[in-house]
Structures are given as structure tokens and as C-alpha cells.
Amino acid sequence: MKSLRKYLQILFIAALSLILAYLPACKIASYNSGKAVSLMVSDSLDADSGMVALIEPYRLHIDSTMNIVIGVSSKALEKGTPESLLGDFCSDLILDEVLTRFKDSLAGLNVMVLLNNGGLRTSLPAGNITISDVYRLMPFDNELVLLELNGTEVKALFDQIARMGGMPVAGIELVLNATNWVKASIGGEMFDENKRYILATSDYLANGGDGLDFLNRNLRYVKTGLFIRDIFIDGIEKITATGKTINPTIDGRIYYE
Q1: Cα 47 vs. chain centroid, distance in angstroms?
Q2: For helices 85-101 and 228-241, what crossing angle results, to 10°?
Q3: Reduced 3-state DSSP string for the chain
Q4: Higher confidence at residue 61 or residue 231?
Q5: Can you give the pLDDT at residue 105?
Q6: How many CB atoms lie within 10 A of CB 74?
Q7: Which end of the chain is more exposed for a tag (fewer CB within 10 A), N or C?
Q8: Domains and their CATH numbers in the chain
Q9: pLDDT tens across 61-101, in order?
């Protein structure tokens, strides 16, 4: 996935370099006086044919890369609360990555994943899933971070999830009522406020987004250097490599009693 991102960056830089090389051909003029006029700018204006010809090969390269099919989904995945197919699927991809890549540095602590519905910008369609679909789903360069939380912080986290009516999670089972959460388990074990836990989440949420300002005060903060979008792409490719289609189900990880 890093190679894809680097490839797209190289194409962008190459196109930009050509544009900048084209600019010196423009003449610079100075005026001592003039009159301001209003000009209507819209997409109805004709494109500069020379500039279009300059950029077109790079656009075609990027388009062909973004349209690569990386997986197939048996159904459309949409977000929602208290849980959803899209939220469960994306959170599970993060959990699998953390448990695989960082298993030797988790110190035996149970792991949970938290994402936000606002960060999942669109749904994933039924049928072929392309790289472009994942970029539309997660257009931001949100980084995966790991936080070590104490019991008080986990309770505050559950309070906020309850206030939001549910959020995309993995590794958690949370029972809600009309006003708050009732009981919870993490990693298949009942929540114990005397224990510590690992939270895998986005840098946006870790920095206090979506009302989680108490996470911003957490000093046990590890930047992984992994973009969440890249984890999604890699995870889908791994599913495809096993010959499977994407087929998540609602499993009751967050529900109202």
C-alpha cells in the first residue's frame, strides 16, 4: 500500500513539475493604472488545450490505478447506529491489523477499536470494490494510533459511545439503555475498571474529536505511522487473496436492552 501511495505522489509531483516548467513561457507585465472588472468563472469556460494535453497522461495513469478492483462485496455496506455493516467491517479490519502487527507489544492487554461515523464518508457498494471506493470512504490521511487507557478513561469512552447512540467499534460488546450503558466486555472478558486496555483509533479521535477530549490528555499515545485508509485497502486485498467475498453481519456488539 505504501508503494501505491508513493506512486500516486510521484505522478502528482511529475505533473506539477511540468506545469511549473510551462509557466516561465508566460510573460510578466506591469501596469501603472487600471480598472477593476468582474469576471464570471465557471466550468463552462474552455480548458486550456495545451495544459490538458500536458496533464492527460498522468490523469490516465492515476485513473487506471484507482479503478483497480481489490475485492467483491456480497451486499452494500452502509453506516448507522447503534452498529452497522460498514462500521463493523471497517473496525474489524483495524482490529485484525493491530492484533497481527503489534501482538508482541500489547503487553497482554485486551484491545478495542473505535472509529467515528463522520470519518466514514460514504458507503461501500455491493459488487466490485475499487481503490477509488476506499478513497471515497476515507478521503483523509487519518493515522492509526494506540492509546493505553485506565478503567476511568474506558468508562468515559463508553459514556460517549452511549451519548452518540453507538459508534463503529470492534473488540467490544456494549449494552445500552435509554440513558447510558449498562454492561460491557472487551476482548471477550467483562470490563474491569481496575484493568488497563489498549484503544486503537484515529488520530482525529485521539486528539479529542467527537467529544472525546479526555483522550487528548492521554500521555500513553503511540503513533503507528499507518493510515487507516491503507489498512482498509490491505485488509480487503487479504480477504480477496483467500478467495472470499466481503460479507459482514450485524453481530450485536452494541445493542439496546
Answers
A1: 34
A2: 90
A3: CHHHHHHHHHHHHHHHHHHHHHHHHCCCCCCCCCCCCCCCCCCCCCCCHHHHHHHHHHHHHHHHHHCCEEEEECCCECCCCCCCHHHHHHHHHHHHHHHHHCHHHCCCCCEEEECCHHHCCCCECCEEEEHHHHHHHCCCCCEEEEEEECHHHHHHHHHHHHHCCCCCEECEEEEECCCCEEEEEECCEECCCCCCEEEEEEHHHHCCHHHCHHHHHCCCEEEEEEEHHHHHHHHHHHHHHCCCCECCCCCCCEEEC
A4: 231
A5: 87
A6: 12
A7: C
A8: 1-14+48-66 (no CATH), 71-256 (3.90.780.10)
A9: 666 788 999 999 999 999 999 999 999 999 999 999 999 99
Three cell numbers written together for 86: 460498514
